[in-house]
Request: fold
Amino acid sequence: MAASSVVFTIARAAEILGETVDLLDEIADQLEPEDGCLWIYDTDDHATLGFTERGIESLKELIADQKR
Reply:
């Protein structure tokens, strides 16, 4: 598996997908690291949910399934 070169914060992913951060936070618990979901830690041990490009695609699929 190749390393990701781009990671989007949950806020940016919500903007890209036209959804709310709350919705993405709610459905992200269905994703595993293999699906492109990861945590980003800053120097203050503050954690932010992030997504690789694969994670954005996984979120799109989950949102589409949820709307059916």
Q: What stands out?
A: The mean pLDDT is 92. The longest strand covers residues 37-41. The beta strands are 8-9, 37-41, 47-51. Helices lie at 10-17, 21-27, 53-67.
